[in-house]
Amino acid sequence: MKQYLFKRKYTIKLFAMLLILFVSRMSFPLMKYVFASFFVFFAGYLSYGFLSGKLKRSNTQVSLIKKWWPVCLIVFFYFLGIFMTAFFHPDIFSKALIEQSFVMVDVIHILFYLIAAVFLSYFIVSALSFKYLIYKLSIYFTFLALLVAAFGLIKYILIVTGVGIGPLNNDFSTIANTSLLRDYNYYAFTLLLGAASFLYLVFIKKWPDIAYIKYAVLPLFFTCIMLSSSRRGIVVMFFGLLVILFFSFWPSDNYRKWRDLMRKSLLGIGMVILFFAAYVNFYRLHIETRYDNDRICEINKFAESFTAISSRYATLLKPELSYSDVHFGFWRCHEACKYELENDTVIGGRLERLKYTWTLFKDYSFSEKLIGRGFTYATDYALRFYSERKPLKFDYPHNFAFSALLYSGVLGLAAIFVFVIHLLMLLIKTKRHRLWFIFLIGLGAVFNLISGSSIFSVPIFFISFMLCIFNYHINHAPKNLIKNGQSS
């Protein structure tokens, strides 16, 4: 048993679990404590393995600096921004960077990325072991997302039926949607990662073909994302399904594996949509028999939650629509009380933040435009976008490229562009696992371009980039190194 515990495959499994917990720790209550505990366990496992001699690193790894130079470049500019803030603006550094700061979270992320890079360089020494890591990541992503989706659906049913979630109120979101936390975008993001991983497993024929279970996976993810209130999630899911549907009918044997899956999955999604449409029509008839038009009416918890969720999605087409408008459109009567879920503008707030980035940048001196002014913009944004409904101690452009322009100037932004272009070139040159990287980098890019405080803030985005770098080097290593590095 001890001999198996320190085989390379077992170590890779543990590392894959650690990556999954790190990426998804914001999607499930108390997950961060599970991650912290597992991280301590993993560190102890590696320490014991090295000290006892049961776990040995390979001598075939490529130099860290040689392999990760694009990462080192953007990390340098990030820490330069922190140094400039601490040295020239110590008051802002103490208030905006230490007290609940997104920058400190990014620093923790960077330290974890460094640990991951060291592990990859020391333990993933062959194309075979890297393929095994990608496979395990896909499996764990899918099953964790299924677990999160199931918990979200159960929580939603308990709330709309009036049962409630009892003592879990302090940890779980009590809003009547499927999101387990108040940040429903991260909940939807986890399900999208699971859907992408599931599609990849079907593509490489590694998903177990058990009865009709695989045809229920995408409808389940779609239902939970739809009921999560995440406009970002439903838009990405919709366009993602269109893209997969398009390629499933592409005249190539590689994509035919999706054809049967998409045909039956879309049938399931259609049945879900039909159910909600039928409910709205039947319940409207029930309301009309009890209340006159233009009168105030009371509706049940399920109808109330569905109205609130629909009002968020309605703003994608008409930003000026409110909950009251959608309520009257569904039930032909006015709501008895204001619902808990507030709507905000879809892209208006993001565009204002991006415009404000240019307003701040214009006031920079020449040297600050070159290397940035650090993170002084955090308090500027907090003052500019403060509201009584959403008080802020700090804020940011919600776009990693615009944030880089402010904290590291034109040179820092150029470094990020070099980093991204370099990785895209590596992705083009290496065919192995390309689809997996396209899925995950694409999802990470969408969320980082809309919500990211830096290129480090969305873990799957940066981890996918790191794995993409390693994918190229491990598949272009000299054959003698691959032979010597075969894992057990």
From the N-terminal CA to the C-terminal CA, the straight-line distance is 15 Å
SSE string, helices as H and strands as E: HHHHHHHHHHHHEHHEHHHHHHH
Backbone structural class: mainly alpha
| Residues in helices, as a percent range | 55-70%
Going across the biggest sheet, name each strand in turn: 1-2
- Count of runs of 4 or more consecutive helical residues: 21
Please summarize the sheet with the most strands.
2 strands, parallel
Number of domains: 1
Q: How many distinct beta strands? A: 2
- Strand fraction band? under 5%
Shape: globular
Mean pLDDT: 80
Low-confidence spans: 1-5, 479-488
Using only CA atoms, what is the Rg? 25 Å
Give a quick precis of the structure.
This protein is an all-alpha fold and 488 residues long. Helix content is 70%, strand content 1%. The protein has one domain (2-269, 400-484).
Structural commentary:
By secondary structure, the protein is mainly alpha-helical. It has one domain. It is 70% helix and 1% strand. The chain has helices at 2-5, 8-24, 31-52, 64-67, 69-88, 90-98, 102-123, 127-160, 184-203, 214-226, 231-248, 257-290, 301-314, 323-331, 348-362, 366-371, 377-384, 400-429, 434-451, 459-475, 479-484; strands spanning 296-297, 334-335. A two-stranded parallel ribbon has the order 1-2. The chain is globular and about 75 Å long.
